[in-house]
Each structure stands twice: as structure tokens, then as C-alpha cells.
Amino acid sequence: MSRQPKARFEDSLRPGEIVMEHASRAFSVRADRGRTLKEMLIGRRRAGGPAPVEALRDVTLHIEPGETVGMVGRNGAGKSSTLRVLAGIVPLDSGRVGCGGQVVSQLELGAGFGRDFSGRENIFLNGALHGLVKEQIEQRLEAIVEFSELGSFVDAPVATYSSGMFLRLGFSIAAHLDADVLLIDEVLAVGDEAFQRKCEARIAEQIAAGATLVLVSHDAALIERTCERVIVLDGGQKVFDGAVGEGMPFYHRLMGTADAVAPVPCEPPGERVSPPVSCEPPGERV
Q1: Which residues contact residue 9 at a Cβ distance below 8 angstroms, ignoring those fewer than 6 apart?
Q2: What distance in Å separates the CA atoms of residue 146 and residue 98, rounded to the nearest whole number?
Q3: How far apart are CA 209 and CA 139, in angstroms?
Q4: What is the pTM of this model?
Q5: Lower CB count within 10 Å: N or C terminus of the chain?
């Protein structure tokens, strides 16, 4: 009698749906050289050393397909760990997590690239890692190269690339994949302003096509422009989950920067004017 394969949790989710239930993850901080083979075989552990760092502590969240969610918090709050868990890079110690459909992530510059390969070769490599066959990658190749604006550098080894060039290539590949879930972690901060705007426009197109977005950034303006919902993490725990209009003021109070982002005096409270309204009478300068 053949045994049926056990169904995966993510198989029960709709495309674009994200679920984390009581997710916890700790990382060991080793100050020594680790255990020897003999110590591992006999089960002996080294005494002392720093306690594990709890990156996530009983985090539960549910994101519906098509939602745009910003994730903010101080350094070490657990934002990047959450995205790595969602991307399937880091396993949980306890709890469960799942993303429905195709997940496309931009979590670290140069991640998944072969350093000795050219940019063009890495397009084929990354496409294959996301399940595309050669013919599908070839159909998108010209658009990816054009979007990246790398020109002849696309045929140079990526080991010679600057951080901005890594961003251009990595995001250009991600922008031309059929994503149900987009996971983006701070990488947009590396590019120049023109390319950042270009990336934001492409993200907006993918959202309009139904993709779910989880965006980690310290750029409050980017979160407000892009996301409708915000999750605030602190010390590995979820401390706020709600609308951006309420979440960002909560985040600024948490960080002690609320006064620094107060509205300019001529703006009515709660409204945002773009560009900022000048308080000076026309033709005068105070």
C-alpha cells in the first residue's frame, strides 16, 4: 500500500495569502570555535557563552492576497528575520508559516548570484531558481536587461559590480517574474533616486496585477506611499498591526522621533500636502 505524501501547510493557502502562527526563532551567538567532533559524538556541550538571541517571539499575522504591508521597527526588532522566514530561508523553532503561490524576494544584494558569472548568465540562473525554463527566460531577457540599464556591463562578471549595479540586476529580474508574494527588505535604499522611482512604479504595477507586498524599510515616506497597512515589531514581537495612518505615528513615538515628523504649521492636522505649503506670503522671504 503506497503512502500518500503529507500535504504542506502552504498548499492550503490561496495565491498571495500569508500566514504566520505563533512563530518563534532564536539564533545562537557563538563567541568560541564551537564543538569538536568528539564533543558532538558524545553529546557534550560547552558551558557558558552568550544566551541565544530571540529574533521572533510568538509572532502571529495574517495577510490577505493583494494587501500591501509595510514592516517597521528599530534595528534588531526582527523585521529581516520575519522576511527570511516567509521566504523559506530560515526555519522556525516553533509555530508555522506559509505563503500561497509564487514567492519572489529581494532580501540581500547579490543573494543567489554566482560571483564568477556575468549578469546575463545570472539572469538565467535566477530565473531557473524561480522555476522558469530557458525559453521563458529568453522571452523576458531583453526586457530585464533594458530595465536594469546596465548596458554592456550585463556581460561583465558580477564580482565587479557595485552595490547599485547589484540592485539594478536583482530587482530587474524580480520585476519580471510572476509573483504572488513580493518580499522586499531595504534594498531600494541602495539605488539612485531615479532608479528607486522606477522600482516603485514597477512594484505598483505588480500590486495592481494582484501581488501581495511585504516591504521592510526605515524610509517612512516610502512606507506611506506604498503600503496601506503597517506592522511594527519591537524586540521580536508584534506591537502594532493596522492602518498606516495610525501605525506610523505609533512607530515614531516608539522611536522617540514623533516631534521630528510633526506636520508643518500651515498644514491642517492629519492632512498631508505635496509639495509642502510655504508659510511665507508671496514674494516675501522670512
Answers
A1: 19, 96, 97, 98
A2: 34
A3: 20
A4: 0.80
A5: N
